[in-house]
Protein 1
Amino acid sequence: MLEVENLQVVYNNAIEAVRNASLTVGVGGMTALLGANGAGKTTLLKAISGVLYPEDGSIRDGLIKFEGHDLTSLAPDEIVRLGIAHVPEGRRLFIELTVEENLVVGGHIAERADVARRLEEIYALFPRIKDKRAVLSGYLSGGEQQMVAIGRALMTNPRLLMLDEPSLGIAPLMAQAIYAAVERLCRDNGLTVLLVEQNAQLALDASRQAYVLENGRVVLDGTSDELKRNEDVCEFYLGLGAKGDRRSMREVKHYKRRKRWLS
C-alpha cells in the first residue's frame, strides 16, 4: 500500500532529519514507528502527508508511493483525496468550534449525505464525544480531544490513517479506549494504520509490524513479536533486561549512552 524508499528530508537547507529511510506498510492492520525524540518519526509522517513546508522542510531525495501514486510532488489536499489522513501530535483542534463542527470540517471533501452518515459512524465508535457534540472542543479532556481529532480524520474516509503520538498526555484508560476503537476499525473495516508512539509497549502490543528509527535512519524492523524479543528493543525502548527483568532508570540511561557510542 505505502512504500518509502531511501527518503531524505532536510529542514532549512541544513538540518537532515530523515536519511535514507525505507519502509513498507501493507494493507490492513497497524504498523508502528518507534524511536526516541528527534529520531525523525514525526518528520516522516509529515513528508508522507505533504506538510513539511510550514517548517521549511523539503524532500531532497527518495520516493514515497501510495497505491502506485508518487506523493513527493503532490499538495496535501491531493494526498487526502487519495485516501491518506494524518492526525498530528497535539491534536490541533479548532478549540473555538464545537465537537461536531470540528468533525464536519474534516468532511469537507465528502458529499452532504456522506457527512451525516460518517458523523453517526464516528459517534458509534466514540460514544463519549456524541454526548458532547455541542460542547466547544477547548473544554474537552485530552482523551476526548484525541477522539475528536481521530474522528475528524476519519471523516475523509481514509484507507491509510497516520497517528502521531495518540496516547501523549492522556489518561491510560482513555488511551486504551482509543486503541481499542482503532484496532476495531482495522479488524472490521480493513483500515490501515501507520502509528508513531513513544509508548513502545503499547505500540508493539497493538501493531503487527514495526520499525525503529534512530537519527533519521531505520535501524531495525520486523514483526512486532520479533521486536518484543529483540534485546536492544527490550533494553532501549521497553526498559527490560535480557531476562525480562525491569531495568532501573539509571541502567536504561547508561544503556542509551553506550548505544549511541556504538552506533
Protein 2
Amino acid sequence: MDLFVRESGPAGAPAIVFLHGGRTSGWSWEPVVERMPGYRCLAPDLPQFGRSVRQGPFDIGRAADAVAELIRSRVHGGRAHLVGFSLGAQVGTQLLVSEPGLVDRAVLSGTFVNTLPFPRQTPDLMGLFARTMWSRWLLTRRGKAREPEIPAASLDLYREDMRLATSEQAAQIVVASAGFTLPAGLDTSTVAALFVTGAKELPMARRWAAALARPMPHGVSAVATDMRHDWPLRHPDLFSRTVEGWLTATSLPREIALH
C-alpha cells in the first residue's frame, strides 16, 4: 500500500514514524516534528485519511500492515521508533504485536480500548452515531475547524481533509476504532513502550493505558499532569520532550508521572 508520507530530517538519523489521530492526517504532527531535528521523521497519512484517502477502507490491522511496509521500504535499517496519538496509538499498539521487530521504542498517547461486555455491538452503535454527527457537522459548520488544537497555518489542510471525507467513511473509521480490544500477544512483545494519557481524560483512559502496559515486559503507563486527550497537539513542546526522553531512555519531563 502506497501511503502518502511527509518526511524530514537527516537521512542517516534514527527514524520516528508518527501516526496521527482521527479527523486529521500526517500534517498534524508538524509542530512536534519541527522540535525534533535530530531524527528522520516520517508522518504518513493513514489509509482513508488525507492524501491516502483512496487507500481505504480503514482497518486497524490493515493500517498497521501499511505502516510496517513503510518502515521496511523507507527506513534505513528497517527499524524505527513509533509515536502514535489516539487512533494512531491503536494502530501503533497493533504493530507492537504484529511486527515488533520493526519497532525500537514507542510512545502511544490516548489509546482507546473497548472493554465493554458486548464489543461487537459497540462498533455498530458508534458507527450510527458517527454517521449522524459527521453529517450534522458538515452541514452546520461547512468545513470550519472548531478544534482549538488546529493551528491557523494548518486550517486549509484540515478543511481539505474534511472535504475529502464522507459520513460513511467517518462511520467506518469510528467502527474500526470502537472495536479495538487488547491485542493478543502483547505479553510476547519486547518493545519498550510508553502508554501515556492526559490527567484530564476520563479515568478509564488511565485504566486502558495500564491494561496495555501491564502484560508487556517493557511496557510503562504514565499520566501527563493537567493535560487533556489532545495534549500531543496542544502542547507540542512538552510532548516532544516526552518523546525525546523515552526514546533516549534518559529522563521524562516532570509533568509526566509514571502510573
